[in-house]
Amino acid sequence: MTQIPTTPYPPAPYAPRQADTAGVLGGRLLAYLVDLAIVGLLWGVFVVVLLVLGFLTFGLAWMLIAPLFPVVAVLYSGLTVSGPNRGTVGMRMAGVELRTLDGGTVPFVVAAVHAIFFYVSVSFLTPFIVLFGLLRSDRRLLHDLLAGVIAVRRR
C-alpha cells in the first residue's frame, strides 16, 4: 500500500543552512550599487555608439537610447548570474551567489526574469523589498520567490 505524504508539497532538495544566508541582505545592497555602476558604464558606451550611429542613420538610432538601459541591465544580470560564477560582478565582490531551489546554477531565462522582477520591484517598492527579506528566515526577497531562486553566501 502506498503511503500518502502528510504535506502537500515535498521539501525542496536544497535547504540552505542559516549560515549560508547570514549577511546576504547587506551583501546584496553592496552588489546592487556596484552592478548599477557597471550597467551605467556599459550603457554609456552603447549610448556613445548610438549617438554616432544616429548621425549616420539620420537620427533613427537615437530612438534606441531610451530602451537601451533596461536591455543592458537584464542582459548583464542574465548572463552573469547564469554563468559559472552564479552571480554578477557586484555579487561576487560581496560574496553572494544565486542558486535555484535545488542548489543548481540559475538558467539564463530565469536569471533574466529575476532581473526584470528586481527592477520592477525596486521601482515601486524600494524600502519594502529589504523589509520583506528581514521578515524571512532564509532572507529571500519577493523577486527571489517569484523567480524561484535563493541568494546564499559564496563558498
TrEMBL record:
Name the predominant localization: membrane
Top-level division of the source organism's lineage: Bacteria
Domain named RDD: residues: 25-148
Q: Which InterPro entries would you find in this protein's record?
A: RDD
Q: Where are the transmembrane segments?
A: 29-53, 60-79, 108-135
Protein's cellular compartments = Membrane
Keyword annotations? Membrane, Transmembrane, Transmembrane helix
Query: Per the record, a Pfam family?
Result: RDD
Q: How does the protein's chain sit in the membrane according to the entry?
A: Multi-pass membrane protein
The name this protein carries in UniProt is RDD family protein
Q: Which organism is it from?
A: Alsobacter ponti
